[in-house]
Amino acid sequence: MQAPSGCPFMNKEEFNPFDLSNPFPQYKEFREEKPVFFSGELGYYVVSRYEDVKAVFSNWKTYTSQNAQSPFKPISPVAKALMEEQGLVGLSGLSGRIPPDHTRIRRIVSMAFSLKRIKKLEPKIRDLAIEMITKFKDDGEAEIVKQLAYDLPALVIFMLLGVPENDVQKVKSWAESRLLMTWGNLSDEDQLIHAQNMINYWNYCQEMVALRKVNPTDDLPGDLIRLQEEGHEITDHEIATICYSQLFAGHETTTTLITNGTRELLAHPESWKAICEHPELIPNAIEEVLRYSPSIVSWRRRALEDSVIGGVEIPANSNLLLLMGSANRDESNFDDGEQFDIQRENSKDHLSFGYGIHFCLGSPLAKLEFKTVLEELTRLVPTMKLKENQEFKFAENTSFRAPTALEVKW
């Protein structure tokens, strides 16, 4: 696929969007040399500078989010037919919707997914963190993903959504299938396996809603059904799609935040030492982790009309890949943006949770979980450090970046 006239072009050998092992040096080159270019591998315009990414997020009328959950690679005919049979087409919680539906549903979800409900979870999050860390703190070593970061966010979001503990592993595996089907680069054979998992996942979410119609519960879907019964305009299908979205977004990104954040803090021992000695630095350290090594390094939009980004003409109906992982290090907005600094004054200006009407509704919960984990790790295993000579591996996809394992010792 060739770039439109006047736009820089990069083929797969120059830019492989599915390789997230260490994209940051290349992001820097993009900002300096090709801040907007056309990816031949994806057929997307790629945007890398802070002001440009923020401007696209801000303008939902020109740049729709309706492609945010669309698969990058075409779904094979067999997998597509299987999914369509089960009504698994075009599902989106909030990130892929636009006003007026987005405004209506987000207002109702915000009433249920309130700070009060999130704060109610804090003691349970701390108990979980202490329980998990206590299991390995006398071992002198741990694998943080397997023994902490993988399960804790899932258990928390499942508490919020009322998922029984014995369903955690299967729902978590279904969520991984959704990640790979939407943001990955699967073979036709693998697509069929993951498509069936997504069908199971969607049926589970519909059943959650149906069960609460009969037996009301004190959880997020239960609250949404109560609001529906009080006259707020939200359908059973829309509630199921919120569950479908939150059962994925509510833990997958927090797993990556805990993993990335712990790794970055340990890779900068002076920062780890500082939060051990001064726990009050933890909230800003989390913002700096989100800026420097975000859970999601890119997101998508589609141009609804002809426009110009960074001096490049973008035709209507073009797809855009917004590199938040690059924007967050843009030195025009962050002094010494390639440096990790937990006392940076404007770390909160990162774009890792998006910007504008689609700013992540779950960001307070994600930050609360990581804050609690860091408070307990620094208290219970303050001498923790990275194991030497480990090779960090990352799942092949365009957006979700975290090592698949993180080995530590003390």
What does the model show?
The chain is an alpha+beta fold and 410 residues long. It has a single domain (9-409), classed as Cytochrome p450. The protein is built from 15 helices and eleven strands. It has helices at residues 24-33, 50-58, 77-85, 101-112, 115-136, 144-149, 151-161, 168-183, 188-214, 220-229, 236-267, 269-277, 282-292, 324-327, 363-380, and strands spanning 9-10, 36-39, 44-47, 63-64, 141-143, 299-303, 307-309, 312-314, 319-322, 385-386, 407-409. The strands form three sheets. It has a six-stranded mixed sheet, with helices on one face. Strands 5-11-10 form a three-stranded antiparallel sheet. The chain has a two-stranded antiparallel ribbon with strand order 7-8. A hairpin with a 4-residue loop joins strand 2 (36-39) and strand 3 (44-47). Helix 9 packs across helix 11. The longest helix has 32 residues, at 236-267.
Summarize the structure.
The protein has helices spanning 24-33, 50-58, 77-85, 101-112, 115-136, 144-149, 151-161, 168-183, 188-214, 220-229, 236-267, 269-277, 282-292, 324-327, 363-380, and strands at residues 9-10, 36-39, 44-47, 63-64, 141-143, 299-303, 307-309, 312-314, 319-322, 385-386, 407-409. It is an alpha+beta fold.
Termini separation (Å)? Answer: 51 Å
How large a portion of the residues is in β-strands, by DSSP E? 5-15%
Question: Which structural category do the helix and sheet elements fall into?
Answer: alpha+beta
CATH architecture: Orthogonal Bundle
Rg over CA atoms, rounded to whole Å, is: 21 Å
Strand segment tally: 11
Biggest sheet: strand arrangement: 1-2-3-9-6-4
Put simply, the count of helices is 15
Quick one: CATH class?
Answer: Mainly Alpha
Order of H and E elements: EHEEHEHHHEHHHHHHHHEEEEHHEE
Q: What is the count of distinct domains?
A: 1
Low-pLDDT residue spans? none
CATH 4th-level superfamily: Cytochrome P450
* Mean pLDDT across all amino acids: 92
Assembly annotation: single chain
> What fold name stands as the CATH topology?
Cytochrome p450
What general form does the structure show? globular
Helix content percent band: 40-55%
Largest sheet: 6 strands, mixed
